[in-house]
Every structure is written in structure tokens, then in C-alpha cells.
Amino acid sequence: MSMAYEDVPFSELLHHPAATMRRLDTVRALRLRRRDAGDLALMRVDQLERDTTVVDFTSRLLAGLVRTENIAALRQALPEALPWSTFLPPEDVDTMLAELVDIARGAVALENLAPIALLLAQWRHSAEIHADPALLALLTREPDGDLGPAPMPRMTE
User: Fold this and answer.
1) Could you say which of 8, 56, 80, 127 has the lowest number of CB atoms within 10 Å?
2) How far is Cα 104 from Cα 93, in angstroms, rounded to an integer?
3) Measured between alpha carbons, how far is 132 from 128 in angstroms, rounded to an integer?
């Protein structure tokens, strides 16, 4: 297999299903482009199971490194995996690693990797803020003056 995935119009799958499916012999997955909706991915179940095994292994390895207090090794390897993490303060890196381990374990157990992607996107946005001194100053400054009374929370039944 040479490429991770190949872009294919969705209509090609509909009009030439056998020929389109044969493409999975040379790529891990097909990205089915649709005009009026989000793209879809098509892959063999055995490939999906292999990918899940790798994610499971990786999350368990991460958890093991954290559990054995090998944070130094994780911190050292992190900029290789997430180059933007260099902009995070050291205490945020520790928090991110702890959250990543917990979320990865839970996501693998649910066979849903979306929570990992969401967590990484959130931390990447934090790094973007820390990378821009003007934006960081704007978002972390104390508000000017009194912001007025806070409304009483409504009770829900």
C-alpha cells in the first residue's frame, strides 16, 4: 500500500462499484467526495481493526509511561508528535498529557476516536493563543472596572 487514502467521487462508487472497491488493494481507504454533504471514508474492516489496535496500543503505552512517572520521556517526545505543543506553558503540557491519556483510554474503549481529535484541537487552539503575545495579553488581562451584577441562576426542575 502506497498511500493512506485516495480521493474518489461518490458517484464513481455508485456507477462502478467493483472497480472502485479494487482500489482498496493499493490504498488503506477511499475518501468519497460528495457535493452536498460531508465526505465519507470507505475501508476494509480488517484495516479498521488494525488501526484500532494501533490506537489502543498507543493509548496504553502513553498511560503506562504516565503511570510509571516517565513524564520526562513523554515531555521530550511531545514536540515531535505535536510541534505546536512547544508554545504551551510547562504546567499546561502536564495537564494535556494527563487528559490525553484518560481520553485516549476512554475513546478506545468506546471505539470512537472523535474525543481524542477534539481534545487535540482544543489544546492546539490554546497553543495558538500562547504563540501570539498580543492575543494572550488580550485574553488573560483583568477586566476593566466592575462588570455589574451577575443575574441569579434560574432553577430548573
Assistant:
1) 80
2) 16
3) 7
The amino acid occupying position 78 is: L
- First and final CA of the chain: distance in angstroms? 57
Handedness of CA 105, 108, 109, 115 (dihedral sign): positive
Q: Please tell me whether residue 36 adopts helix, strand or coil conformation.
A: coil
Q: Which three cell numbers stand for residue 28?
A: 488503506
| Inter-residue contact 33 to 9 (CB < 8 Å) | yes
Other residues' Cβ atoms within 10 Å of the Cβ of residue 108: 20
Mean pLDDT of 51-78: 79
pTM exceeding 0.70: no
* Cβ-proximal residues to 19 (8 Å cutoff; 6+ apart), any chain: none
